[in-house]
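Title: Prediction job returns without error message
Component: structure pipeline
Severity: low
Priority: P3
Assignee: unassigned

Description:
Job completed but the reporter wants confirmation the result is attached to the right record. Sequence as submitted:
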Amino acid sequence: MAYNDFTEMPVWQMAEKVVEEVYRITEGLPKREDYALCSQLRSAAMSITGNIAEAFGRGHAKDKINF
């Protein structure tokens, strides 16, 4: 199936839900939790959607394999 935009892809939509869930969970952590842990979890979750978007913009199948 051809997509006009990466946000139409089911995999990106699922990854976006992961980001939302990670933010919800990390907001509920006690304040004494390591700030770096929350930051790292959020960054990792957001990189999923970012990598999907970047791969969508690639023109060749060989490039997409890297993502």
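Comment from assignee: result matches the submitted record. The chain has one domain: 6-65.
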